[in-house]
Amino acid sequence: MTVIKQEDLIESVAGALQFISYYHPTDFIKAMDAAYQREQNPAAKDAIAQILINSRMCAMGHRPICQDTGIVTVFLTVGMNVQWQADMSVTDMCNEGIRRAYLNPDNVLRASILADPDGARKNTGDNTPGVIHYDIVSGDTVEVHVAAKGGGSEAKSKFTMLNPSDSVVDWVLGQVPLMGAGWCPPGMLGIGIGGTAEKAMMLAKEALLEPIDIQDLKIRGASNRAEELRLELYDKVNRLGIGAQGLGGLTTVMDVKIKDYPSHAANKAVAIIPNCAATRHTHFTLDGSGAATLTPPSLEDWPEITREVGSNVKRVDLNTVTRDEVKTWKPGDTLLLNGKMLTGRDAAHKKMIDLIDRGEELPVSMEGRFIYYVGPVDPIGTEVVGPAGPTTATRMDKFTRTMLEKTGLLGMIGKAERGPTAIEAIRDYESVYLMAVGGAAYLVAQAIKGAEVVAFPELGMEAIYEFDLEDMPVTVAVDYKGTSIHKTGPELWSKKISQQEVEFTI
């Protein structure tokens, strides 16, 4: 009989969550480096470079890879010969571990969990509760997988109940383009097939805990139907040309992981859950000898990469930028932003729209300004702001026309594509949308030299800040004419891949 102490599980969960907040898995680093070396689209190559540079900086500085430090999922496989020395339930122990990890003053992690999800949506303040799953098996150890899943990638999850004769491949290939770039590719797709609706979703989530090994599979060959599907989907999804951050390119997925389960004869349940460029998960075993010890990767595991600055890079002063200057920017241009920039996400936009509807003045002028869709991590030490990567821009689409029409806002910065409603408004008001790289939050934060809350302090991380910038890298994603690189980029690279018959060997 193995005795597992309460404190050992709590400390192990807390330590694992801190660990994965700043360390990418080694297999992920190697796969991302291979994608970088192979990429031919300059914009996508630069996006991957930012992700890799950010990853190494986070490993060195022990700060979050992404400002969205995720909702925690814990999978426990508990041996039946385990005895708990505890006065808390196992669920409560896991949640206490989450609480300690996210409130750790040495590396504050952003609390994103809201209670009463369809009501008051009040932040719980410590990122609890997590989503916790159990499997009771023979044995005398406790196997624990811990993952922290960002909201942007989780929002792109898909489920369907296919007819038995329907093609899984056709359905997946139809869904991936609809996911857009809000899940921050390149990443992984977890696919669950079979069982019931909830079982398929569980299988997809569990599949994402497995290491990236598609190249090994290609070498040894498939030994079952799931592996055949992995190889087929890996090739065909990459041939879509979506590319890093949806900019178009050779690598959209670095692996496709599939788990299946016996199914009712009348059903074929299929689920897709993507993992983003901030893939965070780890595994440990408790055997009664104490809390888990996790071995960090060596810094030598990260490639030494320097961003290549091309001729299309322009330095922009946000304090003096004009609409005429904005009209010279072309989709795909790289800009380095300097000067004062405002921030605001869903909650701040809702408050501003309510004030506009009531005919009241906004607490800060938006005339001629740029707004960054971000909810930063709290700073520590001498930081002016913690990791501050972009959030998914489409969530602000419904506010865009009113903001451009009523406030004189000049430009917006966020993650991934804009929808047709926002693009039409951008074109009508000759505005612009710029894209910052999702998964490079700590790198972005280095460009922020000052940060001050200027409105709605009660919203916490969703308050409106004013950032003082020095060379913050962004890409022109929608120009003043409404041309979107997230449409033109994948179309171009899908054609190039088809014409060149590129073989995917990343």
Give a short summary of the structure:
This protein has about 500 residues and is of the alpha/beta class. The protein has helices at about 5-20, 25-40, 40-60, 90-100, 150-155, 170-175, 195-205, 215-220, 225-240, 325, 345-355, 395-405, 420-430, 440-445, 485-500; strands at about 1-5, 70-80, 80-85, 115, 120-125, 130-135, 140-150, 160, 185-195, 255-265, 270-275, 280-285, 315, 335-345, 370, 410-415, 430-435, 450-455, 465-480.
What do these coordinates show?
By secondary structure, the chain is an alpha/beta fold. It folds into three domains: 150 residues, no CATH class; 126 residues, 60s Ribosomal Protein L30, Chain: A; 178 residues, Fe-S hydro-lyase, tartrate dehydratase beta-type, catalytic domain (fumarase, Alpha-Beta Barrel), CATH 3.20.130. Helix content is 32%, strand content 25%. The protein has 15 helices and 19 strands. It has a five-stranded mixed β-barrel. It has a four-stranded mixed sheet with strand order 6-2-7-12. Helix 10 links the parallel strand 13 and strand 14. The longest helix has 20 residues. The chain is globular and about 75 Å long. The termini are far apart. The relative contact order is 0.16. The mean pLDDT is 95.
